[in-house]
Every structure is written in C-alpha cells, then in structure tokens.
Amino acid sequence: MASPVFNNDFPISWCPGCGDYSILTALKQALTDMEVRPHEAVIVSGIGQAAKLCHYLNCNFFNGLHGRALPLASAVKIANSDLRVMVNSGDGDAYGEGGNHFIHALRGNINLTLITHNNQIFGLTKGQASPTAERGTVTRVQTKGVFLTPFNPLAVAVTFEIPFVGRGFAGDIDHLAELMKEAISTDGFSLLDVLQPCVVWDRVHTFSWYRERVYKLEESEYDPSDPLAAIQKAKEWGDKIPSGVFYRNREAVSYEEESPGMGDGPLVNRPFDSRKIEILIDSFL
C-alpha cells in the first residue's frame, strides 16, 4: 500500500479511466516500499499527458522541453548523485522528439530510470500516431494508416546492453510496482516501458485487449541475461505480448563509476571558488 507521504492536492487533469492513473499509483507504491522520502526523489519530464505525472507527486520535479527530459535528468544526477532520479515520459516525448537523447542516454549508462507511458499515440495533441504506433493504425492525421516501421525501444535498449530493460502493463499495478522497484534500484540506466491504454484516442488497444494478450516472463523459463533472447522477446507482439524483465546486465559499469570526476561524492557538496567563475565569465567579454 502506498504511503500518503507522496500525495498532494494538485487537481489531476487526466481523462477518467486513463492508464496514467495506474502508473501514478504504482510509482507511489514502489517509492513507499523502497522507503524513499519525498526530498530524496526527483521526477524529470518533458511535455505531454504522461509528463504531468510529476505534478501529482509530493517530491522534487522539473518539467523540461518536449523530448529533453533525459539530458536534464542526467545533469540532476551528475550534480547530486545521492538523489533517486527518474524520467517520466510518453512514447512520443521519449522516442520521437527525444529519440536522439534516448540513444545517447543508453550509451552513457548514467544511473537513472526512464519510465515511459507507451500508448502508441500523442495523447495531449489529439491522437496522432507516435513512433511506436503499429503499421496500419488509423488516426485523424494518418487517415490511411501508419506506413512507417514502429520504433522498438526495448530491442534498441538491449543492443546497448544497459543494466535493466523491462516492460510493465498499467492494468497490473502490483506487478508494475515490482518492476519499478527493480528499475529504480538498478545501478546504471534502466528502461521501463509501460503499456498504457488511452481511453479516448485509441479504441483498439484497450485494457481488455491487453489483458487478453499480456503475459509475464517467468525466469524459470526465460533467461534475461541473454541479449539475443531479449531482442526476440522484444519483437513479440500480437496475440501474445510479454511483460516483465527482458534483460539484465549485471556486468555493466555505470557512468558514475567510469567518470574520474564522480568519485569524491556529489558535486553539489563540493566547495567552489567563485572567483574562478568570474574569470571564466570575463573571458567571454
């Protein structure tokens, strides 16, 4: 059960029945179970319905530009490595406008968690197809159906062999919260892609549609340390859709461990000489 410590009284503007509510509940539950305090957590987001989640949590947050949440979160984590830094983003925000930052965040393996609300559409701007939309998806913009190959974030993330790649479903809050706890606890970059039904703009991928198809990956039958198997699972879509931990790389070394400047504690706690800053500024005049 989530502690009320993360609750606030900011009015929620999501549509009734939206899958984002479940993701918010799961995140509160995960942070409570991990005994994270509000001042120890930072949520960074871009623009979109998913990006509003940080408004509804009693913790530190930063809203950035569309698609620019990952570099902001990286700066926060580098400045204060003691914080639990999470990026909360939609599939358009993270994989469309932010696709370049997503690729380089995977390369950098900085210690933060990306939680993506993936509903295959741009919900805030009235239902256009996002990069993850299936071929043939008809929207008010793509009236003859999407003809582009859908972006597969899980498969891409596995190719970079980051420490954690997972998928959750907004219709299973307890399982989603457990995945969040592992992702947030992982040392290095972690991706948790969440299947999040949009009740307004997508009448195909409903909660019931997903419940008929989503199944959990059981580690007694599946080895998440095998990147080739993980990529195969990431490409499985249709009558059966896997959820759970797709890939773990316990050998991955995080940015903080690799960087020579990060070994003496958080940068925010280190003394600095303001005169050097003045000299630097003056050099540009």
CATH superfamily: Thiamin diphosphate (ThDP)-binding fold, Pyr/PP domains
**Ends: how far apart?**
57 Å
Number of helices: 10
The ordered H/E elements are HEEHEHHEEEHEHEHEHEHH
Query: Rg, please?
Result: 19 Å
Strand order of the largest sheet: 2-1-3-4-8-7-10-9
The main sheet comes to: 8 strands, mixed
Structural class: alpha/beta
Strand content: 15-25%
**Strand runs, count:** 10
CATH class: Alpha Beta
Keywords:
285 residues, alpha/beta, Rossmann fold, 8-stranded mixed beta sheet, two-stranded antiparallel sheet, 10 helices, 10 strands, 17% strand, globular
How does this structure look, described?
- The longest helix has 14 residues, at 20-33.
- The chain has one domain: 3-Layer(aba) Sandwich (Rossmann fold).
- Helix 1 (20-33) packs across helix 6 and helix 3 (91-97) crosses helix 4.
- It is 31% helix and 17% strand.
- It has 285 residues and is of the alpha/beta class.
- An 8-stranded mixed sheet has the order 2-1-3-4-8-7-10-9, sandwiched between helices. A two-stranded antiparallel ribbon has the order 5-6.
- The chain is built from 10 helices and 10 strands.
- A hairpin with a 5-residue loop joins strand 5 (121-122) and strand 6.
- It has helices at residues 20-33, 69-79, 91-97, 99-108, 153-159, 173-185, 207-211, 227-234, 255-258, 274-282, and strands spanning 41-45, 60-63, 84-90, 113-118, 121-122, 128-129, 164-169, 190-195, 214-216, 241-248.
